[in-house]
Amino acid sequence: MRFLAYALLCLLLSLSATRAQQYPAYNDIYVNDFAELLDLGHESILRRNLARLRDDHGIELTVVTIGSMLDYGHEGNIEVFATGLFNSWGVGDATRNDGAMLLVAVEDRVLRIEVGAGYGDSKDVSTKRIIDRIIVPQFSQDNYANGIMEGADALIVELSGVEEEVSSGEVIYPPGYEPPGFFERNAKWFYAATTPVAGIGAFFFMRWRRRRPRICPVDGQRMQLVPEDLDDALLNDGQVKEEQLKSVDYDVWECGQCGHRTIEAYRGWFSGYGACRTCKYRTLESESTVLEHATTSSTGRRRVDYECQHCGDTWSATEIIPRKERSSSSSSSSSSFGGGSSSGGGSSGSW
Questions:
Q1: Which of 12, 244, 288, 342 is deepest in the core (most CB within 10 A)?
Q2: What's 50's DSSP letter?
Q3: What share of the chain in percent tops pLDDT 90?
Q4: CA nearest 30: which of 345, 262, 336, 341?
């Protein structure tokens, strides 16, 4: 009996240890966006930059996003999970141990830059600076893609050895690194200056076009625009609901001579409502839930729940999430890591 109890205890401890060491399998050595924080454009650029770092300098840097560490049976801090994941995948060269991993657990609101054992603690301060000054400020505003892209760029520079020449103040870039051109460096200021002007111009043009005089098609007389606070009485229930939801705004033009009315509809620019299959009004609200995440090797599934705010019709549908595309740069070199390991160096942060 005592032996049976001992065997059962060993089995439970074994299962517990197995659960604690559960990690996701990687689909790519550069980017594994399991939490879907990056669009295809960002992911393609990021993968290209990471591939260049590996090709030019032999350094493996991988970016990983997950929902929660609890999804993999981990209830502790991110440091233990990151080190275990790093060593499970074998990031970096097996001899130099110079790999690095940027790990984001978005639902836990924590992140970690884990570095290979070859760095010791030499990167602890610089990685902490990247997290606190670059990544966390973006994450705090829910700008996850920007935080990841800018943080990865800074980490690439840190790992590849960009040095600043004190005497001239110029930056000496290592081979293979292409500094941004003038327009790239100043693009945000250009867009910041021109976008408001273009937006204001478009706003006034659309306003003029909408308010220009209308001619009655019956008697050719000039029509009058019914004031906004009075036109609801001339709309049906569905149109009134659309205006309440701001999915559609209606203008009612009326001829003072013959009484002819014209109703014109203008869709809301930022409305999230769609057209209902039953009543046809733009009063349909939808909510999407991911059932299976898409990867580069398989499609995913999501359930979309619909509810009409006008007629009350509700239904659900399952949609296929297309497979993520893998850029050509991801296959330019080995599809597996180099067998490196980490001893827990790096830094963590939260937002």
A1: 342
A2: H
A3: 56
A4: 336
